[in-house]
């Protein structure tokens, strides 16, 4: 390698400013919770769920022995609306999964009312996951921890995964959202002021402003 | 000298940390209107100190909304979903991740890669085979791309400059004439003379 090439290589790999990531308030360095004995957890998931799921490709989804979902939209909708206990497995080490998509996953889990155990899977797990479940394009697998799931399996994984910690989100989470995106209708005719007053939403504000 | 430098670095770190924390504090203060201002001030500070931030922070529209500058928090100020378009020219379905900012209504789109790249597949296949498989170096294509970008190198420009002088042009012309005279013994030239 010539000196010029080495210089070029060094220029490509500039040092990233670290203190911003080490910040305990935003906790960006530990966006993904630590998993102890990651390989064991991955083997456990493969043995209990993924190895059997390949046989159910022809069976309707609601007859599967577990409640699981792999589609992104479905997972997001579930975490936003329901409150249950779930595992969310994510292949965050694989280059095929969009980093922008992954960036929001821990925040989504933290903001959800569900009790989410976010488990990061080791590198190369995406391929195995997609082989068993071709629909898992985004490397996400959500498993609901209900009676259908072996309690031993749940306990084994839970003891090995840390909890999510984002101090800056705590004050956001336990507070009603303040953004009002309400779709309302306004009558087209201008002369019907009396009819407007009977509505409660926007028209009330207008009346106050006038006074 | 070194202590002075350490002090200035310490100041810089605390300065930037403060600004960064403020951006993240804004959602809980319910003041999204300020986020653009705070984000800009933070980015300007990093520029001033000539720092290289990780791409997860710097990428446009990824962590912060591109229009109002607020930190994206799903289920709070951002709605996220994936759109699947099957009506693509190539026939394969194009998937796009969409982030909708609920503060300003901006839609950010991120196209997702659907199928694994051929390179990767080949690599995996090769790794599975135990025997030796000869391959063309994969970096060739990348190098070619670089070459296309760097068309006008200094060397080439110098060459061009040399060749465009009057004397060199004359020399070229005389050479070509010489060639013509040498090749007059061709069959065609005989035919022409006849």
Structure description:
The complex is a heterodimer of chains A (211) and B (194). By secondary structure, chain A is of the alpha+beta class. Chain A has nine helices and four strands; from the N terminus they run ααβαβαβαβαααα. Chain A has a four-stranded mixed beta sheet. The radius of gyration of chain A is 24 Å and the shape is globular. Chain A starts with a helix and ends with a helix. Chain B has a domain at 78-111. In chain B, 53% of the residues lie in helices and 11% in strands. Chain B has helices spanning 2-29, 35-48, 55-58, 118-128, 139-149, 154-163, 166-182, 187-193, and strands at residues 78-85, 94-101, 107-112. Chain B has a three-stranded antiparallel beta sheet, with no helix packed on it. In chain B, a hairpin with a 5-residue loop joins strand 2 (94-101) and strand 3 (107-112). Chain B is elongated, with a radius of gyration of 31 Å. Classes of the chains: A alpha+beta (211), B mainly alpha (194). At the A-B interface, helix 3, helix 4 and helix 7 of A face helix 1, helix 3, strand 1 and strand 2 of B.
Largest sheet of chain B, in brief, is: 3 strands, antiparallel
Q: Which chains make the largest contact? A: A-B, 39 and 44 residues
Query: What's the total helix number of chain B?
Result: 8
The average pLDDT of chain A is 81
**Uncertain regions spanning at least 5 consecutive residues of chain B:** 117-127, 139-148
Number of strands of chain A: 4
How helical, in percent, are the residues of chain A?
40-55%
CATH topology of the domain at 31-159 in chain A: 60s Ribosomal Protein L30, Chain: A
Cα end-to-end separation of chain A: 79 Å
Mean pLDDT of chain B: 77
The top level CATH class name of the domain at 31-159 in chain A: Alpha Beta
| N-end to C-end Cα span of chain B | 93 Å
What are the secondary-structure elements of chain A, in order, as H or E? HHEHEHEHEHHHH
Return the CATH architecture of the domain at 31-159 in chain A. 2-Layer Sandwich
Main structural class of chain A = alpha+beta
Beta-strand percentage range of chain B: 5-15%
Shape of chain A: globular
SS-derived structural category of chain B: mainly alpha
